[in-house]
Amino acid sequence: MSRTLAIRGGTIIDSTGTRRSDVVVGPDGSVLAVGPGLDADDSLDASGCVVAPGFVDLHVHLREPGREEAETIESGARGAALGGFTAVLAMPNTTPTVDCAPMVTEVLELGRDTACDVRTSGAITVGRRGKALAPMAEMVRAGVRLFTDDGSGVQDDRLMRTALEYAGSLSHLTGGRPIVLAQHCEVEALSEGSLMHEGRVSSSLGIPGQPAEAEELMVMRDIAMSRLTGGRIHFQHLSTAGSVAMVRAAKAAGLPITAEATTHHFTLLDECCASFDPVFKVHPPLRTDADVQAIKQGLADGTIDAIATDHAPHTSHDKDRTFADAPPGMLGLETAFALANTELDLPIEDILALMSWRPAVIAGLDPVHGGPIAVGGAANIVVIDPEMEWVVSGEAMASRSTNTPYEGRKVKGKVRHTILRGQPVVVDGDAQR
After folding, report:
1. Where are the beta strands (DSSP E) in 203-352?
2. pLDDT of residue 239
3. Is 305 assigned a catalytic role?
């Protein structure tokens, strides 16, 4: 295609501020003009809408390779685009694990022509088994900038120290960009056999619970490891008030630490599990109201840098088992902005920062993603109607799975258009790929 595209009538919000302006993007994937009254070969209406850099999700499970019946990279990318994401970071807990350069290349190839820029993380340890370091240097050369054993925390203290030191030596392969180790914080000796948060609700239901300390002890250890090695740590899906407090103190001390929170950890409570519906089973578990309020405060004051989805599709065959037997996880890509816009008492500018330019920096994707909407910049853009109300339906989503905990919930804020590399991949809420 050689046609230009105008996004007309919207309010631009990016890291440089807010202004009313039209945007013209070119077929080369760049912004050609920003200003009033612009024309182009084609146009998209953004009247009453916010025009922003596309969202970046630091934490998605796209299941491919290995569990394509639940999700493929193509279907996940389509759902991401419908949710306003122009880039997502896939987790490595596929089958086989993304723990070597050929696996990295396979995931990137599968995502090449999809509706979203699909990047992948790499496993810290071989097979995510926590015994030996994966070949991180070869994965960095293949394009990985963030490593995680997500689904499991690295239990061995010495191995985690070595991983941080090794990652710190690899920035020469990235032009000076830091390599980040992301941690799923969970001490398995305390969490083994747990199905939900340990507390009043789990006791009343007779369900084995995971104490908050299972997360907090590893957060504490890795803060100490970052202090010892100077290594960059990103804490995944923080879920407890104690974790938020420790990250806040570590940041105040100047340590190179970032953190994310998921939408479900600031919108749902452990009380939801009283229904015994496995759709509310997630890992780490839903916590108490005090924890939810702490997550919200952490998002508001900058302690938590990003909103992530931990998008985790499962087939109905798997999710419709008993609460004890069903796998943890829930869908998140298409509802993330609406939930944040509905549930968080934050200005839209702050929500966009948490979903776009701040996670883009953590992932090493800026300024291609999350960068200001300016002439010469990359045309990865989302157009949002922040006032539009809609009702969540798992069946209506692009995912191959339907396991949303928000079925039937009315939310406010809808993605209208998504532009990837100058091309519209979502127009008026309909996927184009």
Report:
1. 209-210, 233-235, 257-262, 306-308
2. 98
3. no
